[in-house]
Amino acid sequence: MALILAIEDEENIARLLRLRLERKGHQVVVKENGPEALAFLQGPPPQAPDLIICDVMMPGMDGYEVCRRVRALGLKTPFLFLTAKGQSEDKVRGMQSGADDYLTKPFDPHELEAKVEAHLRRR
Amino acid sequence: MGLAGLPLILKWAVLGVWALSLLVGGLLGLLALTRLWRAVSHAYLLRRRAFFFPAIEALVMEEDGGLAERLRPGRWGDAAIVEEMLVELFAMVEGPLRERVSRLGEEIGLVHRHLKRLVSPRSHARAEAMERLGLLRSRRAVPSLLAALESEAPGLRVVAARALGRIQDPTALPGLLKALSGLPGSLGNPVAQALGSFGEKAVPSLLAEMESRETLRARVAMILGEVRSLSALPALAALLAQDRDPQVRAACAAALRQIAHPDAVPPLLEGLRDPFREVRAQSAWALGRMDDPSACPRLEEALLKDSYWWVRVRAAEALARLAEGRALLERHKEAPDPILRSLAREMLFLAGRGP
């Protein structure tokens, strides 16, 4: 079982992530925005999830900034972006900010599960 | 005491105040009733959503057994509630789950409800039905929507095109391509967007259309750019070099900018020498997206010598995106030509501010 942090402000997508990943036996913690997620990571007690899934477009702090700050904390956790479909520049920017992979919304839940498992295998 | 003893003017005043208070009281009562109705219907809606929620979760988890029965609308308002929940799912999921949601919409009668409304004598009811069928991604609705694309008024044809773009059934491509040429001016844009939403699936048909119909080439080139189709790159490069129509050549350069592949650099460098200024401007702009320093000398030449100011702006902008280009712009910061000097300074300043 892995601890997965999902940073997503859209309630429906957060619920979808939780349902699909908990079914696979993972523990999913959902945070609505970047500051909440960073506070969760920094603790107390400090948390080290096995994987982070993060939306790009969020009010306040966007996904790129969250990723940069996560990396600045020294965490090497696999980081997966959720981007809007067709925004290829977003994908490049996401990778440059320290992410490991991305999924475009709307996404195939099977692809989500496969990517999550692939990254968790490499831990 | 009655009004009998009062002077006439006072009688009228009392009656006026009475009538006014009745009116105000009535209006306040109506307002209160409206608010109460809204609160009650909202609470009902939430209750019904909660009722259907376990079935929606089972659908998300791809569980089997009785989902159509559990989601079939039973009470007043259920159809709209379940439909909204399925539409929300479409916005989130792709692949087999999306197909399953689409089939479920048909099984529980939501699609049938809207198909019946497509023959309504009221045009707004037909428009709404088309919109909902598109949102429900109903393949069964494709023939009816294609018929609407031929027979309806231009405004409704646009709605039908948008719905077909959402459903993305390949059988709709010929009809949409036909509509692209049949709709005037800006009304064709939603059809172009609908074709673009098919992505790579639409590319072979779009390329064939570009080959056969000269009048649609510019518009099709723009769609291919939106799709960012790599397989369309050779055709776009060939048209940029050879097409007689400068609008087509400019559209091809713009499409190559969106595709942003290194193979587009040689045709775009040639585009900088095109006799039509918009083609040169689009080519310069596109070269800025290619991340290829070999384009810098020709971009600098355009910046220094092009006869049209907009081409110079685009060339400066492109140079500012490349490290080698910024070094060239640095050299022109103190140039005697005031346009060159200000372009170099402005683009370097903007480049320093980052994206």
Estimate what percentage of residues of chain A fall within beta strands.
Answer: 15-25%
Low-confidence stretches of chain B: none
Overall shape of chain B:
extended
Helix content of chain B: over 70%
Question: What CATH architecture label of chain A applies?
Answer: 3-Layer(aba) Sandwich
- Number of alpha- plus pi-helical segments of chain B: 20
Main sheet characteristics of chain B: none
What is the gist of this entry?
The complex is a heterodimer of chains A (123) and B (355). By secondary structure, chain A is α/β, with parallel strands linked by helices. In chain A, 44% of the residues lie in helices and 21% in strands.
Helix-strand layout with pairing:
The complex is a heterodimer of chains A (123) and B (355).
Chain A: E1 3-7, H1 11-23, E2 27-31, H2 34-42, E3 51-55, H3 63-72, E4 79-84, H4 88-96, E5 101-105, H5 109-121
Parallel strand pairs in A: 1-2, 1-3, 3-4, 4-5
Helix pairs in contact in A: 2-3
Chain B: H1 8-60, H2 67-71, H3 78-90, H4 95-107, H5 110-117, H6 123-135, H7 142-151, H8 154-167, H9 173-182, H10 188-196, H11 203-212, H12 217-227, H13 233-242, H14 246-259, H15 265-271, H16 277-287, H17 296-305, H18 309-320, H19 323-331, H20 338-352
Helix pairs in contact in B: 1-3, 3-4, 5-6, 6-8, 7-8, 8-10, 9-10, 10-12, 11-12, 12-14, 13-14, 13-15, 14-16, 15-16, 16-18, 17-18, 18-19, 18-20
